[in-house]
Amino acid sequence: MPFRSDWSDELCPIRRSLDVLGDGWVLLIIRDVLHGRGRFDTLRDNLGISEAVLSRRLRAMVEAGLLERVDYDDGGRTRQGYAATEAAAELLPVLQQLAIWGERHTPTPSGGGHMALIHEGCGRKTTRGETCSHCGEALVPEQMSWDKPWHGRRDRLVAAGELRTAR
Fold first, then answer.
1. Least packed by Cβ within 10 Å: which of 5, 37, 58, 137?
2. What is the mean pLDDT of residues 109-134?
3. Which pLDDT belongs to residue 167?
4. pTM of the entire predicted model
5. 167: how many CB neighbours lie within 10 A of its CB?
6. Domain residue ranges of the chain, discontinuous segments joined by +
7. Spatial distance between the Cα atoms of 115 and 131, rounded to a whole number of angstroms
8. What CATH number has the domain spanning 13-87?
9. Which spans in 4-160 are helix H?
């Protein structure tokens, strides 16, 4: 059963985009996969999503060309995880602008802290999603880190096609 109308044949590119990206789980899954967390169990645990919902979303995202299945070694056993395609990697500016917007326009919960987007190319914090506000260089996942004080760490993103095998 579809969640809403099918907009895949619409002339409006925003409607067509929402046809693929309109489910809230999609951008959260892409966020985690761009952080290299493309193992099924890691996605499930990090997102707090049921296995059934996650399986459906991953299958749809592979079919839509946002994710690709990649093999990894799990202690001598080959397993499959998920990596971002170029199409998903091109959503980095959207994700970063959502983070910037959220920092500006939503209250930070108690115990949180402000997330910083770090362009590793110049080592500086950026306040824009597509190009570095310090050096002007285009931002790509493999040159970005997200500093998350509530986790007490800085997470480096990965390039399209990459998966971190360590948990």
1. 5
2. 93
3. 52
4. 0.90
5. 8
6. 13-87, 95-155
7. 17
8. 1.10.10.10
9. 13-21, 24-34, 40-47, 51-63, 86-89, 92-105
